[in-house]
Structures are given as structure tokens and as C-alpha cells.
Amino acid sequence: MGEINKNQKEWQNCKGLREPIKSLQDKWRLVPSFLQVKGLVKQHIDSFNYFINVEIKKIVQANEKIFCDSDPMFYLKYLNAYVGTPDLEEGFNVTKATTPHECRLRDLTYSAPITVDIEYIRGNQRVIKNKQLIGRMPLMLQSSNCVLTNKSDYELSQLNECPHDPGGYFIIRGQEKVILIQEQLSRNRMIVDEFKGAIQCQVTSSTHEKKTRTNVIVKNGKYVLRHNALSEDIPITVAFKAMGICSDQEILQLIGTDENTIKKMAPCILDCHNLKIFTQHQALSYIGQKFKAKRYPTNVSKMKTPVDEARELLATTILAHVSVENYNFYVKAIYLAIMVRRVIEAEANTGAIDDPDYYGNKRLELAGSLLALMFEDLFKRFNWELKNIAEKIIPKVKAAPFDIVKHMRPDLITNGLFTAISSGNWTIKRFKMERHGVTQVLSRLSYISALGMMTRVNSQFEKTRKVSGPRSLQPSQWGMLCPSDTPEGEGCGLVKNLALMTHITTEWSEEPISRLACNAGVEDVRLLGGEEINNPSNYLVFLNGNILGVTRHYKKLIKIFRLFRRRGIISAFVSIYPNHNQRTVYICSDGGRLCRPYIIVERGLPLVKQIHINELKRGLKKFEDFLKDGLIEYLDVNEENDSHIATVEAEVDPYVTTHLEIEPFTILGVCAGLVPYPHHNQSPRNTYQCAMGKQAMGTIGYNQKNRIDSLMYNLVYPQSPMVKTRTIELTNFDKLPAGQNATVAVMSYSGYDIEDALILNKASIDRGYGRCLVYKNAKTTMKRYSNQTSDRILGPSRDATSGKIIKAHDILDSDGIAAPGEMVENRQVLINKQMPPATFNPLGQGQPQQVDYKDVPITYKGPVESHIEKVMVSSNSEDAFLIKILLRQTRIPEIGDKFSSRHGQKGVTGLIVQQEDMPFNDRGICPDMIMNPHGFPSRMTVGKTIELLAGKAGLMEGKFHYGTAFGGSRVKDVCLELEKHGYNYHGKDIFYSGLTGEPLEAYIYSGPVYYQKLKHMVQDKMHARARGPRAVLTRQPTEGRSRDGGLRLGEMERDCLIGYGASMLLMERLMFASDAFSTDICGACGRLASRAWCHACRSSAAVAAVEMPYACKLLFQELASMNIVPRLTLKRYC
Amino acid sequence: MLSEVPSMAIEKVMIKNNTSIIQDEILAHRLGLIPLKADPRLFEYRPEGAVEGTEFDTLEFSLKVRCSHNKVQTKDSFRPEDLYENHSVYSSQIKWNPIGNQASVHKDIDVGPVHGDILISKMRPGHELDLNLVAVKGIGKDHAKFSPVATATYRLLPEITLTREVNGSDAALLQTCFSPGVIGIDSNGCAYVKDARYDSCSRNVFRYESIKDAVILTRIRDHFIFNVESVGALPSQAIFVESVKILRDKCKTLLDELQQFYHSSSITHVNK
Which of B89, B123, B146 is the C-terminal boundary of a domain? Predict the structure, then answer.
């Protein structure tokens, strides 16, 4: 404090510093510059690039040698590994370069070969072979090896790719797959939490070999060590003794020598004495007895004594990330001591308990690290298999020397990676990891839905659990995760989205950091005793969760690190921050941390000046130059919490402020960025819009006409919104829009607008408003079977008598495939395919080749006809013919279609009104849409009313207004513009009723609002049935629209009818309209009879026909088959 | 005028070939919305159920365009105008094919799209359009394309009365509150109502406390100012006359019906 006061005085003497800081003009220009290099989907691409260029080599190097037990001379050594450029395997050893679009169309996988250089023994020779294929790696689009990288817009268009397509996904068997960002608790960090009232310190260690969890917990006032490999908790003092810290004094010195600690530790020490454990050997043998019984004792483990085993466990399994050399446990003991100290501190002060939801303790796993896990597992299995083969074959004497290359099968790794990505199941047995739903199909409903998917963060928490902690918005998520974009319902708060400027770090090597730290005065902990480590003037330094050493001048250390980082000597993504309560300094360089750029403020002045921005505007500087010049730096969540960040220039306090926000609107994500004036809306409305923006149809990319997707919605005349935001421009939403500007009058009309229903103008619809195209595809393959037969396609069949082509085949070309441009109706054949009856058994030699083919036509289903847009005939990866037909429907808005504005205000069309019946204003403007004003008071979407005003003024001025969050055009300016053009200042005009012709009594608020057409349309939902298909087993009507099913009279409806007493109606609905069945029952024995003859009574005297539900009869038969006799008592009722 | 005055518009499009990127239905929809220069009074409605049109109720057009590379292109230009021929299809490329003795009845300039510069589609080499278009007479109730007007609207004549004298800066302020030309300022600096007709009725005067009480804004209830924006097939005044005729016919029908009803009811009375 003294320091600050001194500074304060100094500064007060200076003139000029007290003046308010001028705000920078056009500071937002940094954001697009940032987005060119980082952010949005770049984190996926960066992480994947790191994997294929760096990490894959490390993995191969870590598992570089294979030895064989049967031949000590034999070895196989991997020298290097590469991932190539994308290609297709066409036959044997022939490859052809490919493009992502080709893979999409032909249902192929966009992948590149993984090749290795190897050195191995063949016979007695040492052989070096380069470029040996070991598998294929699915490639991420826009990654360093992808053909699309660094291509101009023109080149991209030549490759049939949209220049705005973000990339960052994979194409597996023609399907676009995204590996979602996975959120998890950070590894190798101590986390103190409360579990069932007891305080515990938990560390999840993770290394390449092992993943274990170690706990220090309080049990009956004593501290114990708990680990999965041990059947019982170990007293902490025993653990210390096992690690070679045998004297009680030394243990206490490591943990702490203040009175409280000694008092708390006393029972533990006593405990140890009671157990009569004094030496390391005694302690190890004690631990050795507590092992969990192994299910499969191996030869190796049998040879070891319990003491050895315990020592091994302590060295490699417990706190696995703290490395132990030559069984010197000192560092690990210090680590354990710190864990104990944390628990003791947390007991005294509950404030020391860590918050598990704090975002600094979270790490995000990206495609690269997930694939690295998968690849390492597969690569190990691949090597294990090679070793097995070598062991089997080498002992056999053979003519040719054993050549391991011939046994390298690339399928294992290829299929492993392909199926993992296409199914989303990440199963790694080594780590007992089993995760589902890691990947998802990229939703191409609209451009925004695809982009929004790339920024999605999936949490590992179980969705069904009703906990509020992990779901609620954490203050530490500020600026990193979008506060609005989360789904409603079960995934609420667990599925998050990244904010606009968030970047996720990739790993950076620890070595230079630890060297720098040593130079900056960090002393190695191994040279120090407990007293020195715990000295209050010393700070412990951690690097990625490992103890690096002790420093006395932590401020100096931090300053040096930050200086080096700003100078670009160490990676910009290394973070350093102190924790004063724990007296530690943490340095992080691991991957998966969230970080975000800030402008550095020094002495109350932001380093970025107007000149810099001007240079940026003129293109002389880029974002990276700002970073290099030390004007801007990245802060991760933890370091952000150690900084004082001003949101705007006016908030800069010369004494404390360290950083300045680049632009406040970047705290929102991509989807929330579409909302104009979101800061005027009630927060849940923005959340609703985030969900709905993904269902809006519009354009999905410039290559949409070349795609053959299974479902695609397009708007015929999409428009860019009148009221834009900066985010819209940054994400190119204005170039690939999803919606139209509708002139909206906020008034009530006719009563068909209750409950958010909208009234549409028929003339607007006639002129093309809300018109959309729906594309669907039909596809088939022509397979070739093992018995030399194959599928075939025949031309249209003709009617035997008239010689005319039959109705179902009306649209077929002579090749048996429907012709482009034709209209298809329900049940018409698209592809007249036939299949041979037997596909397995080889046909006999003498048998005639004439086989009866079975018709398996691909038919069109749907109540409304479609047009054939195009037909594609190609081949897929199995060399079979692949035929895809793209079907198109043009849909005009009808009653019941769903529309929504950008403010979470959705509604269905309630009525379509002729133009002459619509109200109009003085200038003859007739609204396209009427919205009921009751939508406003409870929803509090003030942003929408401002959007309307700004849109109206924009129309008059001929420009786009901005509704950027925490900024944008001001209402006052907008209104003055309206006034200038002769409109009412408040945006309310006189309207005349279209029905009576009289002026309306109220002034009507009207203007353009951007409306999205959502994918829910009546045509896809309408359903009715009188008669139709029934389920085979129960003979009840089928369920669901897709199977033309019945409408269920459910349990609650049944209750109503019972309550009302309408028994005959019930009877009709539940039996006669469903599965009525007449069966014979024997009145004498009460059992089912067959054909009026009771088999049990051997008579037909008492047999009567009874009507009952078929399901009931089925039940009786099933019961009878279980030796339970259901008997019916028959009575005459009339 | 919006919905019942008839006009001609393309109703059916026979597509022989369409290899452009625009879909058949969308192309047909776009063609339908092109306003046609043909006097609907000279045509009849096509009878319901008729498949083939006659010379009295149908106009036939054709559109045949093919896009190709420009052979004599300038070297350095990358503009589509220079690279390709027929890269955009305009409504002027629609050709009229007279049927029957239409050629003698109608003059060539009287038939065809009103505007020649309506963009129908953009094309690239290899794209081709070969269409037959059939235009019929219809009314706006059926589809907005048959409406002869862009819009037809009316407003009531505004009336502005100043209740007290407004002068000085207030007068200038008052002037800015109305559309230009509504308020005049005389030589004394006093505001007076020059011509209320031009006012857009924005009611912005009432935002200013100082002059709020000086103005009464009303409308004359029985003074309608009609505004008819024709799309071009008929002049506005003709459309107005047509609409009045339709209204007259409607009134006549109503009167006839009433008459008949009166008669029939009186007959039943007699019978009773």
C-alpha cells in the first residue's frame, strides 16, 4: 500500500494524467483482424494442426521400438511419422488427390495417409524403409494439410467450396462430422473440496501412461491417503515414511510448523507410532499389504515382493504426474505435504475450499487432443499386433526372411479413427475412458447453425442430474463463454458456446519456461528443507501443476515473465499468476486453457493509440503486430482474475488498471451476436433467439446448389438485415443471410393473431415473401455380390395390354432413373432397381444364369409432390455404383408455418389476408405482417422495438443501422432521422383500416423487422388417418406420422371418458377402432377354443364367439404358454 | 383497384430447357411478376377448364437465351459483361408470338413487358433458357401479379389550424415540424398555414412544449386524396375509371338482387 500511496502522490503532481483518457475510435477493427488469425473455428484447426504436425511425431517417438521375445536381434524402430495430403485410394497403390466436395458427394472419407520411416531387421540385415503406410487420418477441413488452406476465393470456388465455410470439421463417409469441444476439470491440479462434510484434497494425475486420482482426506480427525489401487486408506504419516521421510520432525517441517498444524497432525503421528512403523521398509510393507487383490496375477507381479510393489506404486501410480527418479521421493513428499497443508488450511478457513465450477480449473479438449488419445491407443495396439505376429512367425523356419513390413496392415488405425469419428464413441481401454456423443453431424440448416456448432462446448457432467452449480453462469466465464447461448432443458448450462474472441491454447513446451524461471531466481526445491519451503516470505512456484521451486521475490518473477511474454520471447499463451492465500505462483503452458486478448494499460494509459488503429485501418498493421509490439496480450481465466480490466476507456483508473477490453460486444458468441440491441432485451429472450437462429432457413453457403444433402432448407429471396451488428459482419451473416425484412405493424387484427400468431399479407406472399426451397435426397448403391451377381436397374415397365408406360414409372428415363426436371408424385418410382434373390451361395456351374430378380425400387413418399433437381451417378469407396437424386420442393408460406424475429419472439401464421383488407398508412404502405402488441409487455423485448425504429430510419436514409451489443446507433439519433424524413418521432403512424376504410383510432407502430422463417412447417407435420397400417404382433394401429399411424387416445384422455361415463365411446375407441378380434371361448372351462371346438373339454357345446381386443387374446396365449391358465367366465347379458 | 381491376400477366410457363441455376418454379414465379404492356380491356377471361387459349384471351411469348463466352473479349477485363454474352437475362429479351390475327389487332409496341430492364436471371456459359410463356387476364384477388397497380391508396386531407400567433424562433421550429411547404412565415415572422395538403402528419409538433398548444391537427373527414400508382399496362386514370365501372356493376348487381328478392318475397306473400 505504501508503494501505491507514493505513486499516487507522484502522479498527482504530474499534469495531464488526471485528464480523462480519450476513447479510441474504431477500436473494434481489432476484432476482424483478430478473427483472421484466431478465434471462431481456428482453435479446432490450430489444435488439429498441432496434432498432425507435432504431436503425432511425439507419440510415434514415445512408442518407437518394438522388440520380439523370440528373437533378441529383431527390432523395429520408427524414425519419423508424417501425415500426407488428402487423396483417394484407387486400386492397388494408386492414389488420386481429392477435394472435400468430392468426398461429400461420393460418400467418401476426406483423409490423408499416415506414413512412417522405419528401421528394422530383415533376416540379418538392417533395413531402412521410408514412407511406409500405417493408416489413414481423417483430415480436418482448412487444416494445414487440407487442399483448401490458403486458397483464394476464386480457387475455392473452383473446388466447389464456399469461401465463407469455416472448416474445422471432418468428412467421414460423406457425412460432415464435428468433434465438439469437451470441457473437463483440469488435470494435475490440487483441488480442495468438501465431500459429504469432510474436506479432501484431490489430484487427478494424467500422464501419457497413466491416469490416476489421489485423495488426501480427513477421517476421524486424522489425515489419510486414499487411492484406487489401495483397498484401505493409508495414514498420511505412513505414506511419508514410505517415501523416505522417516523422522516425524521432518514430516512436520514439510507440512508446516505452526501451532495449529502441529495440533492437527499430532493424532496422525501417534497413529503411526501405534502401528509401529518407523522405517521406510516397514511403511512400504504396510502399504504392500493393503493392495487390492488383482484379478489376473501376471508372472511379473508374482515375482515382486509387496515392498517392491508398494515402492513401484508410490513412484508411478500415486501422484503419477510428479516424476520420481531413482526412487527419490523427495519432491513427491513435498507435493503430498502441500496437499495435507491445503486440507488443514481449508479446515480452518472454509474460504480456502476451491470452487469446482471456477472456470480457471477447467480445460477444454479439442479435436487434436482427442484424436491424439485415439491415435496413441490405436498405434499401441498396432504395435502390439506386429509384435505378436513377429513372435509367432520368427521361430518358424521359412524360405524367405521374415519381413515385418508385409504384416503392417493399415486397416486397424484407419478403421479405428473412422469409426470413432463417425460414431462419436471414444473408448480407450487403457484409461478406462468411455465417452459417447463426442462427435456430431454438422448441422447445415443455416450458416449460423454450422458456425454455432463449431463453437459449442460440451460438458462431461451428466445431463440428467439436477445440480445447479455446473449449470449456472460463473463470473469467471466472463468474456470466454457466451452468457446467452445455451440450450433450454436438460442441457441448459452444460452445453455452452465460446465467445467471439476466445482462443483455446495448445500446449507449449515446459523446458524453456523452467529454464527462464531458474534464471529469474527460482530455487530448486530439492535443495531445500521443509522450513525453508514453508517460510512465509517464500512463494512456491508451480509449472503446470508440478513444483518447480521456491522464490523469494515473486513480484519480480511475475514481472519478468510478463515482460518476456510481451516481448515475444516466450509463447503469448503462457500465463503466470500468484495466489496469495496459498503463497504460490502458478505458471501454465498446458493446452486447453481459455484465453482472450486485452489491450495493455500502463500508468493509466492504454498502449494502443489512435495511430496504431489508423495503421490497422490502412492495412499497415495486423493483429499479430499488435501482439508482437507488446500492445496487446492474451490472458487466460486465471491471469484475468489477477488483473484489473477496464471495459471502456472512461473506467481506466491510473493506479490499478492493468488492461483494457478491446470491444465489449465480444463477450457474446456467434449466435447471440445476431441479435440487434441485445442489451435492451430481457436475457432469456436472447437465449431463445440463440436456439432459434439455428433453425432459421436461408443460405448455407455459396456452394449450396452443388450439394446433395439429405435435407436442406433454402430461402428463395434471402435478405441481409436492415439492422446489422458488428458480429453479423464479422461472421459474414450478411453475406449468407437467413431471413427477410418484413414491414411489421404492431396492432391487433381479426382475432386470428392471439397467442403470438402472425397475420401475413397475401400480396407479399405472392411476390415471394417467405418462399423457401426444401431439398431432400434419395440414394441407392448398386452392389456386387460374392456370387458374381449384382443389382441392376431396368427401364420403365409397360402395361401389358395398352403398351403404355405404367403410372409409377412415368417419370423414369430409359435408363431406369428418374429424369431431372420431372415432377414426382407419391409412390412413384425414382430408381427402378432390382436385386438378385440369392447373394451368398455361389450359383452352380450348370445352373442357368437366368435368375429371378426381385424388385427393390426406390420410391418417393410424401403427400406433396417434388421436382427432381439433379441426378448423380458415381461410385463409392467399395467401387459400387452410387446414385443420388436430389429432390426439390418450393414452399409458399401457409397458415401454421413458423416465423420468428431475432428477439426470441416466435409465432405461427394465423391468417393470410388479401392486400386490400390489410391496413395501410398515409403513404400507402401496407405491412407484410401484423404482430399482436400483447407480445411485448411480458417479454420485454425492447430491442425489437428499437430494431424497428432503426430499420425504418435506415430505409429512409438508405443505409444499414447498427444494433451492436453495448453500442450501436442510438435511439435518439434514429428518431431524429425519422423526424427528418417526415415520419413521427416515435415511429407511430396513422393507419387506415383495410376493411372499413376509416382511419384507425390508434397510431400504429410500424416498420421493418428482420424475420426468420423457421424449419417447422405445417406440410411436414400434417397428419390424419382413418384406416391404415397395423402392427403385425398386436394388430393395433401403428404409431407415428412416418408410419401413417393412428392418433392415440392416451391414458389421461381415457380417464376423462371414464369420468364422464362414456363407456360405449371408450369401447369404440379402444377396441373397435383398434384391434377388435372375434375369438371362440369355451363357456365351460373358460379357455380359448379353436374353430368352435374346445380342445380341453373335447366339446363344442359351450363355445361362444366373443369379441375382444387382439392384444387381450395375445396375452391369454402368452400366459398359457407360461403354464398360467387364464379363464373367462361367460355370461349372457341379454 | 388492387384486387378487382383486371390485367394481363404470365400465368403458364412451358419449360423446354432450363439449365440455368435458377429453379423452374422460381423462374416461372419471377416471370409471372413481370408487368405486361397489354390493354386488358381488349381481352377476355379464359373460360374455366379451357386448356388451349384462343387469340381473344391469351398472349403468347417466348424467351430463348443462351449464354456463351465472349469471343472478342478484351484481354484484361474480368467483368462478366466482357467475359460472357447474355450473362444476364432481361425482360426485354421476351418475344411476343402473335396467335391468330392478333398481329393485326395489336401493334407490336403495345404488347410486351412494360420495362425492358427487369433482371430475370443471371447465367454463365453453358446455361440456356428456352421457354414458352402464356399470359392471361386475371384479377389481383387471385394473385398479386394480376393487380394493375403497384399500390392504390388514399389519405384524408390534413387540416392544420393555429390557435394563436407563433412568431420568432418558435415559428421556425414550427416550420421544421411539418413537411416542407406546409407552414409559411410571413414578413412579420409570424407562422401561417400555407398548404396543409402536403403535410405528412408526423405530429412532431407535439414534442415541443413551447408550441404544443398552438396547433390543432385534424383531418377533413370527407376529403380523400387518392393515389394510384400504375405498373404501366394502363394509365392511372384509366384504372380509376375501370374501378369505378366495377363498383358501378357491383352496385347494380346488388340492386338487381334486392329487386329480385323483393319481388320473390312479395310473390310468396301473395301465395300465402
Answer: B146
Our CA-based measurement puts residue A763 at a distance from the nearest CA of chain B, in whole angstroms, of 5
Q: Which of A771, A915, A979 has the CB atom closest to B202's CB atom? A: A979
Under an 8 A CB cutoff, do B15 and A821 touch?
yes
CATH of A1041-1121, one of 3.40.190.10, 3.30.70.920, 3.90.1800.10, 3.40.960.10: 3.90.1800.10
| CATH number for the domain that contains residue B205 | 3.30.1360.10
Q: Comparing C-alpha atoms, which of A1080, A705, A1070 is closest to residue A886?
A: A705
Residues B148 and B1 sit within 8 Å (Cβ to Cβ)? yes
> Residue B103 is part of which domain span?
7-146
pTM, 2 dp: 0.87
For B174-208, letters b (16+ CB in 10 Å) and e give bbebbbeebbebeeeeebebbebeebbbbbbbeee
User: Do the Cβ atoms of A923 and B200 come within 8 Å?
Assistant: yes
For domain A776-838+852-891, is the CATH number 2.40.50.150?
yes
Q: Which fold has domain A508-589?
A: Hypothetical Protein Ta0175; Chain: A, domain 2 (3.90.1070)
Is the dihedral angle over the CA atoms A78, A83, A89, A94 positive or is it negative? negative
Cα A775–chain centre separation: 26
Say if residues A89 and A95 touch (Cβ distance below 8 Å).
Answer: yes
B40 lies in some domain: yes
Contact (Cβ atoms closer than 8 angstroms) between residue A741 and residue A719:
yes
- Contact by Cβ (8 Å): A668, A677: no
> Number of H helices and number of E strands within chain A?
31, 54
What is d(CA A958, CA A78) in angstroms, rounded to the nearest whole number? 65
Task: At A590, list the grid cell.
Answer: 498446458
Q: Give A691→chain B minimum CA distance, Å.
A: 30
- What is the chain B residue with the closest CA to A765? B144
- State pLDDT tens for residues A387-436: 888 888 877 767 777 788 888 888 889 999 999 999 988 888 877 778 88
Evaluate whether B136 touches B129 at the Cβ level (below 8 Å).
no
Q: How far does the CA of residue B258 sit from the closest CA of chain A (Å)?
A: 22
Which residue type does A848 have? P
Q: What is the pLDDT of residues A871-882, one digit of tens each?
A: 999 988 887 889
Element of type H or E holding A1105:
strand A1103-1109
Which cell numbers hold the place of A289?
Answer: 499389504
Say yes or no for a CB contact (<8 Å) between A766 and B144: yes
Residue A909 in this model has a pLDDT that exceeds 70: yes
Q: Are residues B162 and B197 in the same domain?
A: yes
Q: Which residue of B has its CA nearest to A704?
A: B21
Q: Decide if domain A730-771+894-1013 falls under CATH 2.40.270.10.
A: yes
Cβ pair B59, B135 in contact under 8 A? yes
Based on the domain organization, do B135 and B197 belong to the same domain?
A: no
**Domain A36-182+364-421+437-453's class?**
alpha beta
Angle between helices A30-37 and A610-617 (to 10 degrees): 60
Residue A134 host element (H or E): strand A125-138
Q: Considering the domain boundaries, does residue B1 fall inside one?
A: no
State in words which class domain A190-359 has. alpha beta
Q: Where are the domains of chain A?
A: 36-182+364-421+437-453, 190-359, 508-589, 730-771+894-1013, 776-838+852-891, 1041-1121
d(CA A833, CA A830) in angstroms, rounded, equals: 9
| Mutation site for B-interface testing, chosen from A152, A703, A716, A766 by largest number of B Cβ within 10 Å | A766
B113 and B14 co-located in one domain: yes
- For an interface test with A, which of B14, B15, B149, B155 has the most A Cβ atoms less than 10 Å from its Cβ? B155
For the stretch A512-542, pLDDT in tens is 888 888 888 888 888 887 778 888 888 888 8
Cell numbers that stand for B238 in this block: 384509366
